[in-house]
Every structure is written in structure tokens, then in C-alpha cells.
Amino acid sequence: MSLFAKWLRPRSDPRDALRPLWHRVVEIAREREWYRDCGIADTVAGRFDAITLILAIVLIRLEREEALIEPSVRLTELFVDDMDGQLRQGGVGDLMVGKHIGKLMSTLGGRMGAYRTALEEGEDAMVAAVTRNVTLREGGDPVLVARRARAFTAGLALVPGYRVLAAEIGN
Hints:
The protein is an all-alpha fold. It is 71% helix and 0% strand.
């Protein structure tokens, strides 16, 4: 193969293998039960909160296995790419996107810490974390969100790592 042919050959993106998992995270976060039954607000803020809740739980699961740490980084990069696109589509200019992404990453990191601690401490702690971090509609119930999140976490803990990476999670 000539040098020119190598230069023109498309390069594979190491994140491609994680795209199905990212899409599955978003799919789970968009399940109607989160909004209809649990009361997460069906708004931009509420949907972001649902995505970060599910993503945080998946990332916490991935960090349990050393072999899954690197894929968790790629999954986080896909979150950043998606949020970057959403911001640009929403009219945020190039000069401000980086600042917004920094805030979103800080938010995700803070929520991961809060959810990690809450999942270890029990239902009351998870309800408190949900109350602080999830936008609910009027009448929404943080207890239902916390219980559903804990059930998702418990189910995910039973899934072998290779199946998590293959997006065979939820339901």
C-alpha cells in the first residue's frame, strides 16, 4: 500500500465500539416510565438529568472492573461529543461550547460522586441525591426515581462486563 493510500484510508474511531452502549444509555434515559410514572420533568433539563443518572450508573458499573476503565473513558467522550452537538444545535457559539462542556463534565463528575455514595448508603441517600440532581415535574416523586435507579443498578451489577460493553443492559 502506498503512503498516499494509507493517508487517505479512513481511520477507525476507538469510540465506535461504545456507540451502541451510548445509544442504549440514552434510550434507557428516555423510557416513558421515568417521566410518566416517576415524574422526571420532560424538559431539556429533565432529560439531561435522566441521561446523567443512567450514564453515571453505567460508568460506576464499568469502573468496578479494571479492563472496563478505558472503555468508560470512550463512553464519556461520546457523552461529550453528543452534548457538544446539542449545544451547537441549540445555538451556542464555538467560543462558548468549551466552557459549557466543562460545566457539563463537572456536573457529570459531581453526580457520579453523589450517586456512587448514595448507592452505597441506601435508599434514603439515593432519594436525597435524586432530589438534588433530578428536575422533577410538579407531583414528581424522587422516591420512585431513586427506587427505579437502584433497581437498574442492581440489575446492571449482574450483567457481565462484556455484555455491558455490548449494550445488553436494561429491561
